[in-house]
Specification:
This protein is mainly alpha-helical and 236 residues long. The protein has three domains: 12-83, Multidrug-efflux Transporter Regulator, Chain: A, Domain 2 (Orthogonal Bundle); 104-157; 164-235. Helices cover 62% and strands 6% of the residues. A three-stranded antiparallel sheet has the order 3-5-4. Helix 3 (50-64) runs parallel beside helix 5 (85-96) and helix 5 runs antiparallel to helix 8. It is globular and about 65 Å long. Mean pLDDT is 78; it is low at 1-6.
Length: 236
């Protein structure tokens, strides 16, 4: 089923299956206000959007970071209203950066279950190009190493009509500039801490600064990209 904006909607059963949770969990989150209410369609059937799915993924990520439901509720109420699925996915990527990145080794079947769709070899290669997964072998049934924090965003990008080579080139550009920014920021942190400080002090400052820095980078990049696209569209 699609809405007037061609965005697919999900029943509560479909939403739960895509998110990897139970229907009871979805209803519990809804009752606590962690999820907005569904759109009620014919026969009083509730329909959920991609924003609901992205919000469930964000809640899962916050739980993985050790937050209680009460803390998650406070965190979600502080988010700006009307966030899209893409905005929520970016916010989840920021949350995932709060702790050292951890990959999981999963089967192809488990990867497809979490992605909510079947994945062909070409799509798997695109996910690998975006560093969402890393193949452990050449066989179709070989497990892959998955970065859970990037999966939802990576799956959405599969439907963007970019060539594989374009994704690789974009990844190279992002890596080059992100490493340069990381070097500059590391130098600033070293100056802020000073030579006599302990390793624990350095780690503590880094832990507090990292989510702020990542959020700032995402925000400024989004704004810069919008401005560049606006200028490009004016010229075309």
């Amino acid at each position: 089923m699609t809405t007037g904006t061609e965005e697919p909607t999900l029943t509560v059963d479909e939403l739960a299956a895509r998110a990897g949770v139970t229907v009871r969990t979805v209803r519990f989150y809804s009752a606590r206000g962690l999820l907005p209410p569904p759109v009620i369609g014919p026969r009083r059937v509730g329909h959920y959007s991609q924003e609901h799915l992205a919000r469930l993924a964000l809640i899962e990520e916050l739980q993985h970071r050790g937050m209680t439901l009460a803390a998650i509720e406070r965190h979600l109420t502080q988010l700006p209203p009307g966030l899209s699925a893409q905005d929520l996915a970016l916010h989840r990527a920021v949350v995932a950066s709060w702790a050292p990145g951890a990959t999981e080794e999963v089967t192809r079947e488990e990867l497809e279950r979490r992605a909510g769709r079947a994945l062909g070899d070409e799509e798997l290669e695109r996910l690998a190009a975006m560093s969402v997964v890393e193949r452990t072998g050449e066989g179709p049934d070989d497990p892959v190493r998955l970065d859970p924090g990037l999966l939802r965003l990576g799956v959405e990008l599969l439907d963007v009509p970019f060539a594989h080579e374009t994704i690789l080139a974009a990844r190279a550009v992002l890596l080059e500039h992100s490493r340069a920014a990381a070097r500059e920021l590391s130098a600033l942190l070293r100056d802020a801490v000073g030579e006599g400080e302990s390793v624990a002090a350095v780690k503590s400052l880094s832990a507090h600064m990292q989510p702020l820095v990542v959020q700032a980078l995402l925000t400024t990049f989004q704004r810069s990209l919008r401005e560049e696209l606006r200028e490009w569209l004016k010229e075309s």
